[in-house]
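Submission sheet (multi-component)
Chains listed below:
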Amino acid sequence: MKFSVFIAPKAIRSQLASSSKEGVVSELVEALVAAGEISAADQDDIIKAIMKREELGSTGIGRGVAVPHTKHSSVEKLVGTVGVSPDGLDFESLDGQKASLFFLLVSPPDRPGDHLRALENISRQLRDDQFCKLLRQSKTAEDIQALLEEADRSQFGG
Amino acid sequence: MHRTVTVLNPEGLHMRPADKLVRAATAFQCQIELERAGQIADCRSMISLLTLGAMQGCQLVLRAQGPDADAAIEVISHLFDSQFNEP
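Outcome: structure written.
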């Protein structure tokens, strides 16, 4: 599943300011609200649900990447965004490294296949060192969006 | 050593089962891989496992090579059979 199917360009954030797990999750969920992807009324509930999922085990998957996520009945299709934290932060990842790239996903409860296909795409692209490096160096949301478009055209990994 | 395993979890091999798989694989000395249609994933890497995109019903070839390969195959097959103890 290509990035363009589930990443909302208007919700991409290149300079996450928070230095805590909950702070980063809140920034990205707020970005999805600002982009009109989820309603403001559901914001707090979605943040809580994502943090509850993190309690079951960190979604830091290694290589400085985390994929905080939840199911939520308010969304009709998988919605997601990307954030970059210039300094990185402790996300309790399996490999003990700081996380600096975040892919936040909110999926409808009845579509586990879409969630799995999004994870498949994210992890495939992230195997490419160049893609990870360029994402981390991105200064603007437009830079990130351009990299995601390149990835969708299979310029990285594959 | 190899054995065919099937993903029984309704939501497929998503992050929580993959996390359990990595933790189990890391306890062994041997190399442990899963193969899906020619694509090979290292069981010690979450990113590698997620690239399989293995949904419910998907069959994978589990391979282990090294001194404790037999035990690794048993433990990891059991994780698949027990749906990774997911609710």
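Remark: The mean pLDDT of chain A is 95.
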